[in-house]
Amino acid sequence: MAPVRVLVTGGAGFVGSHVVDALVARGDDVRCVDALLAGAHAAGAPGYLNPGAEFVRGDLRDERVAAAAVHGVDAVCHQASMVGLGSDVRDIADYVGHNDLGTATLLRALARAHFSGRIVLASSMVVYGEGRYACADHGIARPTPRSIAELEAGRFEPRCPTCQRALTPQAVPEDAPADPRNVYAATKLHQEHLCAAFARECDGVVVTALRYHNVYGARMPRDTPYAGVASILRSAVAAGRAPEVFEDGEQLRDFIDVRDVARANVLALTRAEGLAGPVNVATGQPRSVGQMAAALVAAAGPSAPPPRVTGAYRRGDVRHVFAAVDHARMALGFDASIGLEEGMRDFATAQLRAT
């Protein structure tokens, strides 16, 4: 399937711009809309914007912008979002405004335009909260959020809520219960719910929610509390500082190159049949944050200072979360192609976006 016109929201951002590039390379007719918010694009429109796409600057919360953005489109790739944990809970209204109200306004514009095509939503693994765990005695267990006292004492591993024994982390499948544990996570889950409700009300609409795991790569924003861990560590390496790894560095994640993420979006947009529901977008190869930092330093060269494990923590962080990828492989036909070491070799010298 080749969409006639695809709207990519947030198309000037990190993942969105790579999706735009991939669609333009296919020969698709692409419209990109982005608010170019100062917190993400202080320098204005980035130089990497693809000239083969139509670019519209505007905030999707504005109904006039949303109406113009959806006019004549056959498919929507909704990447626009305020991301990361942010500075503190005082960011809550900004996250809800950009992520939830922006999505609702976009969906209303689509309804008014009688849209009946495909929507691919950029969701996130943060909707799971803590990952999946098993207790030797009690089977699958859902640990409670870690207390400040535990974190202060350096007790980072969650325990079985029944017997308090150590748990074994497991890959998280898409049917795991959602348990968002910070403001950003709550807004991403709400985006999924809004889009699913829209699809139920509108004939012909199919929504695929791509739950990205830890994405890294060129064009990540740098030097901002809203960036992902890979960008924060990369900024430190570029400045000649030792990258600081929180907790004990053993927390497990699934780090995936943005080029693979863009390819997953194209597959979801263009496969013969729409794929409804959530899909993990990950490599299936969990690595610790400490391992990722070490791979980044190794790629940066012998002059780069080694990672420093700090024992510090962020209250909204979870311990282990990594993906089961069978559904992505079987239903979407997606397998990540770029391993961590290869990806870090490119990322170590990749251009980051000034904020």
What does this structure look like?
There is one protein chain. The relative contact order is 0.16. By secondary structure, the protein is α/β, with parallel strands linked by helices. A seven-stranded parallel sheet has the order 3-2-1-4-5-9-14, with helices on both faces. It has a three-stranded antiparallel sheet with strand order 7-6-8, with no helix packed on it. It has ten helices and 16 strands. The chain is globular and about 55 Å long. The longest helix is centred in the first third of the chain and has 21 residues, at 92-112. Helix 8 crosses helix 10. The chain has helices spanning 14-26, 63-70, 92-112, 148-152, 183-201, 229-238, 258-270, 289-300, 326-332, 340-347; strands at 5-9, 29-34, 54-57, 75-78, 118-124, 132-135, 139-141, 168-170, 206-212, 214-216, 244-245, 252-253, 255-257, 277-281, 287-288, 308-309.
